[in-house]
Amino acid sequence: MDILKKYNYDKKLFEDLRKKYLVGELSDKNNILKAKVEPPDEMKFFNPKNDNSQNEKLSNLGADAIKKGKLGVVIVNGGMATRFGGVVKGIVEVYDGKSFLQIKLEQIKKVNQKYNVKIPIYLMNSHSTENATLEHLKKNNWFGLENSIKCFNQFIAKRLNTDGGFVTPESESYYGPGHGDFVFAFSKMGHLSQFIKNGGEHLWYSNVDNLGATISELIFGDHIYKNSEMTVELAEKYPGDKGGAPAVVNGHLEIVEQFKFPTDFNQDLISVFNTATYIFKSDSLNKKFNLPFYYVEKKAGDKKVIQFERLAGDLSLFLKTEYIVVDREERFFPIKTPQDLEKNREKLKKKFE
């Protein structure tokens, strides 16, 4: 099958985006918000460490929903680990021969065993990661979860040169247009409707390389208690941290990616950032979203290329969203380089063994 057809290339959509780029509508300058942007009132964010009065109640609420089969898990596995030598990130060894993906799946197995359930697992791959990931799963007998794992793929697009022409050869132009594809691909493949039909009500979404994003009864219970359509895990910023964060845009609290902040906005006024771990109320995803695409510059060899990407965090523009501040040392382990992995290897082994 043609690769563009297999991975659902939307020729009309990306041709429209290409035209917008050519007339200057899509650019790094136009990624920046023109709206009024203010720091959030962080006192309104729930922090279980600072206010533990309802922690037991919330944990019980989350546990009860897990027992009743209301939870599914989405693992985003579309990225290539370029700083690890261009291999598929999910199958990189973390310790003792165990990959990122294996450790994520083993944590879900522990919850399954604790509550005698089979949590459905949805693995979002890409054209870059699908084959190697499936081979890894089959080689390891799906880590005992073959009947629980369903794979689907994010979409595909073609990079542009700075003059607006497509990168050649075409095989070097392909890319995945951002993790915002999740909601569209998940629905298109029929997984959302089937999950809801089977009684699923909530989806826990995280990246394969954040091993700290495990199932927490407390966080899940808070999501349910507040009747949230989307719950965002926030963590404390450390000096030098960069990334998206919650901010008030024209009076609306939402996730704002770093590149969208106005240049005169002091991002240090916000002490937390988005960990890109979310819980979604599944029926809230069963609608049409007009997620924006952003202009992104990348390097392909020694030349600059252009991509258009959309982001899952932008679902906070459309959904009733709650924010919870989590313990960074427990729930956020960003492993972006081999040095990060080496530095954290023993810590990760101690935590997950």
What does this structure look like?
- With 353 residues, this protein is an alpha+beta fold.
- The protein has one domain: Spore Coat Polysaccharide Biosynthesis Protein SpsA, Chain A.
- Helices cover 29% and strands 24% of the residues.
- It has eleven helices and 19 strands.
- The protein has helices at 3-6, 11-22, 28-31, 55-67, 100-115, 130-139, 181-188, 191-197, 217-225, 328-331, 338-352; strands at 37-38, 71-76, 80-81, 87-88, 93-95, 98-99, 121-125, 149-153, 157-158, 160-161, 174-175, 202-207, 230-236, 245-249, 252-256, 272-281, 294-300, 303-309, 321-325.
- The strands form six sheets. Strands 8-7-2-12-16-13-19 form a seven-stranded mixed sheet, with helices on both faces.
- Helix 6 (130-139) links the parallel strand 7 and strand 8.
- Helix 4 crosses helix 9.
- The termini are far apart.
